Amino acid sequence: MKMYLYAKLKMHLRKMQFDATLRAYINLIRVPYILMVGLLCVLLILTFQKGFYNLGSIGLAVLSVSLVIAGSAAINDYFDCESDRLTHPERAIPSNEIPLSRAMQFSALTFLAGLVVSSVINAVAFGIVAVNVVLFVLYPSVVKRLSGFLSNLVMGYLGATIALFAGAVVFKTINITSLSFVAMIAAGAIGLNVLKDVLTVDGDLKARYPTLAIKRGVRVAAIAGALFLLLSVATSPFPYLLGAAGIAYLFAIALWGGIGLFTALSLFRAPDPANVRKRLRTFNSSFPYLVAAVSVVYALLVAAWGLH
Description:
Elements: H1 2-29, H2 31-49, H3 55-79, H4 81-87, H5 100-121, H6 123-146, H7 148-171, H8 176-179, H9 182-198, H10 201-207, H11 212-216, H12 218-235, H13 238-241, H14 247-269, H15 273-305
Helix pairs in contact: 2-3, 2-7, 2-15, 3-5, 3-6, 3-7, 4-10, 5-6, 6-7, 7-9, 9-12, 9-15, 12-14, 14-15
């Protein structure tokens, strides 16, 4: 009887340990962000191919994107461990849920898996993913230590490559159709990254990251972030004007235009840490749900009427 109880207890403890480890890795890889970017990848592919076709290629694309994002999150937290102890102590590495060595191994494996999956799609898709993997490694290890604003620009490029990657899946090249989305996505990503740096000044100072908020001050960083958001809103009609997207796109992009414009104007009025924190909190809490709702409607329009 004692042996049976001991075995049951041991199994229970193992399950608890497995559940805790699983939760830690879910925390590490930023699942909500993976879901958002994966959804954006699907919508871009549907837009480029004007409907629901080649589901196998779509699945491979989403898998590759998800693996690379997971690897980038792990390696970013690996190099940001010290600053995260101040700014994000709840993350898996600073909370000691995942050892540094395991995070690095996990990043290497997911990067490799993402490269392998992208190589099955086509050579252009593989090339985009390969460049991104290199940049995701250089970003936290080198670029962030050289220039905070340069790191924001790199993140803008990395964000915009989702359009180039989706275009490569469909067209097997980079063309004006996929390029028409780059300015909007890149500017939005740069603006949000500049604003996020405003909230991590203490940790960035400790890690000696020369961010725009540290070098030029919080006010300048908040205004710069707002200007990039306005640039994103201003360039959002490009895909429609260049014929890359149709009427359904205008409905979907109106959401981003409204939120981006409201956030930018609010920051111009009060470019201080409290307002930046408030705007980013609202943005992060509501935007994913709104994006999901609009995406469903957009996908239904594409499926029903081909209003790409």
